[in-house]
């Protein structure tokens, strides 16, 4: 049943939307292919915002934001061939360009990207319902990530600009590109997490096929011209359309060298199997997660409540790094819930542009029904919603629900809910928590809340071999971007962060010769007269 109080949080009509955040529908009829903005006259997909407006009968309807091309296998293969031609088996303009040259192109791109900030931030709000503060932060963090990546690449290149002499061999070791990259980003961080793979792969000299996410696709449109005018033709090519139609022919061609995906492990498995030569495919992926927090008997509950609140419900819990299940020692479970439940209920629901809004409309149309099913399943098996208003819904607005006690057999115990439901499990022995992580299909992060150093240390040692990051008295999170971001089991493949991503999208290559006077003369002439971009002692400042 629709909650009328929640329904009243949506604008009554267009005039209820502040002028700065109103948006005219953007009907995209272009896509980037081989350095050109190609016109599209075929079918399109309409984009409806999770932000609703009442119709003439007073029923809430998602607002139309615009539309984008639904291209097919033919256009996907054209994009692939453009990327293959631009790479040209490593002989193309981009892979053979100097590191300094590639950095210069990227700096040009950033300048043009900044010009589109207001529109992109607005589209993040309208397409996926992220609040204004977080949408702005996503854009700013992406810009910072690009500059940090450039600085790190300069350092890496400086460190490899010298020759090494070992065992009678002179050599220079640098990093070289891998080839054609198929990049697929997620809807929850459609700009930032897409670019944390796109930017390092481009900088390392690869050429790109860029598939936009289903939700959060239009926000990339204002940036296509920046890509087109900043890089040589064929370096960046956009792909639109249904993944089931456009991705299989690309993967089956065997011409993709790197698959980078932020999404589900099920999709990742399907895509990898379609490649005819898996030994030639490198995969760099961030996938499912069921990050767990454990609250020990001696935990500072004020800290635990504060961090779990952020960890479970930032952007409605729609983060792979969100805490998706809380284990609390039975001796403090009642007190934790007495504090945590009201704190959850106090979070302000509303429209993304409203100051202080913490709970916003959900972009996936089917998500509210799925969340309701999870709650019903838990209730049927003995759990209850323990916070006031938890689970109330009005179209795309869903009030967070704290569900307790959750146990094995309930959907919430194992499934990644990816939304504003917080399952809470009571435990008596830490071994129960460890066993849960051992038997879980996921292995991204975990959080420990406690003050007893012996108890914390006892958990750290097994947990670091079960997940990729252990947070002490802190929420699970990706940042800072200089820290490694990866996971075990079905949660990830490869490592992402600033430096790790540059390494992931490249391979170490060496030029070597015997330490003789004749060979030294050859090297000196090549380097001294700048005859090679790879074999060089140029120092980037």
Structural description of this entry:
The protein has 2 domains: 236 residues, Aldehyde Dehydrogenase, Chain A, domain 1, CATH 3.40.605.10; 194 residues, Aldehyde Dehydrogenase, Chain A, domain 2 (3-Layer(aba) Sandwich), CATH 3.40.309. Helices cover 38% and strands 22% of the residues. It has 541 residues and is of the alpha/beta class. The strands form 7 sheets. It has a 7-stranded mixed sheet, sandwiched between helices. Strands 10-9-8-11-12-24 form a 6-stranded mixed sheet, sandwiched between helices. Strands 1-5-4 form a 3-stranded mixed sheet, with helices on one face. Strand 9, helix 8 and strand 10 form a beta-alpha-beta unit. The mean pLDDT is 97.
Keywords:
six-stranded mixed β-sheet; seven-stranded mixed β-sheet; alpha/beta; 18 helices; Aldehyde Dehydrogenase, Chain A, domain 1; 2 domains
